[in-house]
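S.,

Sequence below, as promised.
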Amino acid sequence: MIVIVAIIVAVGAIVFALMQRRSARLRQRFGPEYDRAVRETGNRYRAEAQLERLENRMKKVDIRSLQPEERARYRDKWTAIQARFVDDPNLALQQADEIVRDVMGTCGYPLTGFEDQAAQLSVDHPRVVEHYREGRAVAVKQTRHEASTEEVRRGLIHYRTLFDELVGVPVHTRATAGVNRA
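The prediction came back faster than expected:
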């Protein structure tokens, strides 16, 4: 009987250690997105399962870095969008949203619904995907004519943060996939 109890305790300790390691890996990998997933699902285990499914799904998607000429073209377009802000901030924000989606498509991200796009971005860019959400929230508010010029300016800054991440630096090796995306 003591041996059986010892085996059950040992198996329980191993399972607990594996679950802790899984949580730590996902927390490290997704950063603020991990906490967001836990808040949204209301359950750490459901959130972790959701993040792992997302990781596995994105392993099958061929994400690539921009070529130097693509990077230069997008930077020129962004410079024009920023200059346009002075005369037409609403148009500049709309174009910022469009160029971010265009860059994502060029890099290989599936262009699906917004929430799915944000989730996909979180796999490779977990520390800036919240900027995508914030910029998009302002863009949606702006389409209803409810955003102030200051809010539009902040929305453009959020888009700029994501844009710089997508265009500025080659996508690094995915830690979980082991595939060089650069």
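The chain has two domains: 2-59, 68-168.

Coffee later?
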